[in-house]
Amino acid sequence: MGRFYNSSIGKKFFVSITGLFLMAFLLVHLGVNSLLMFDDTGELFNQAAHFMGSNPIMKVIEPILGIGFILHIVYALIVQIVNWTKRPVKYSKWDQKESSSWASRNMIYLGAIVLIFLGIHLVNFFFKIKFGTVAPITYADGVKMHNSYALVAELFKNCTAIDVLYVLGGIFLGLHLNHGFWSAFQTIGWSNNDWRKKLELVGSIYALIIAIGFSIIPLYFLIKF
Amino acid sequence: MSDKNINIKVKVWRQVDANDKGRFETYEVNNVSTDSSFLEMMDVMNESLVQQGKEPVAFDHDCREGICGMCSLFINGRAHGPDTLITTCQLHMRKFKDSQTITVEPWRAKGFPVIKDLIVDRTAFDKILHAGGFVSVNTGNAPDANAIPISKPAADEAMDAASCIGCGACVATCKNSSAMLFVAAKVSQLALLPQGKIEAARRAKAMVAKMDDLGFGSCSNTGACEMECPKGISLSNIARLNREYLVANVTD
Questions:
Q1: Best mutation site among A91, A102, A194 for testing chain B: the one with the most B CBs within 10 Å?
Q2: Which structural domain range is residue A123 located in?
């Protein structure tokens, strides 16, 4: 197995399975976040966020998620850096757009943009909720929880630059996923001539849902309030 | 078909040997029939260079009917030039315009070092085949035809994979200089058939290890190789190679 970890396919395998894991996380994340738009008192979202933050399964998954991000980034970087060395003399003229999509050729840059966005996103919300001072709120059931809704709503209502940033983040993430989705299945070998078409279609729909879904939340707060 | 003649400029890579830094030189080629092939145009150009007392441009070619895989050339930014499902010998000059400058470069990849001008060393492909692209059979009489039943879809897929001519366009066009499409085709053509299944695990591991050793990059599924492949080798072969390789490592 030692050779496997060091082989080109082995390294890509880790990028692929961590990618699939992160894509599953994104769906859950979007599912919970979409509750922001269905109850303007914020209780629905706060209850959901509290549930996600407090149940034992999520406590186990949270560090795994962190590791998933790190492995995905590290392995993708290793693969990319090695690949950059494989054409010592460049072409003087290279017409790539005839044979491949822009997103598929620029996954590392799209990934880097998403990573920068992720950093800003963690500072905006995650670190504040986890380690900072977010006002507590208590609902009818008597459980004290973070008023995460207020934190999100405050930021999205008052800062247009942040809204634009989150829409852009959604778009770049969507482009990354549009190639990443089917590519992940291809790398683990779950594709053939029939399935490729299906996977590409499902991947595009998935990427669209994620991009539109995450973009619509800041726009909701910006336009409605 | 119009028998139009065009005048073109060919900006071509010149390199004395593997150690030379190399440079571009531009030659004018006049009165080129649009019905001629790209290689015939190169011949005309070389004739004129010889007449001027210059060294002709070295380029690979052999059968000139699209089946040997010798002709390479990165023409105007694309492997085998501006057309699909063809080798360079099948590229017609009618794909170019009068007074156009055509850039001609050798395959660029760490695994394919330039020998001279437009000729690159593709021995790496042979070495990958030596590592596992075969079936081990005992000597003796050939077995009866149809003694081993093979389903029509499997036979077809194996045949499609076997149509790879090893030209290297996949490597040349890949942004990572990856040889995955070539290796995938060579693994698939055997893995799909009962005779090849016996050594499938060893083959996948040996050929991938060799591919990695010889300086080729890894696949990022852009699909450029499939688009530029003169034989239209499908990306599904790469999925099969990934599958074969993963299974080989899990079962070992």
A1: A91
A2: 2-84+102-224
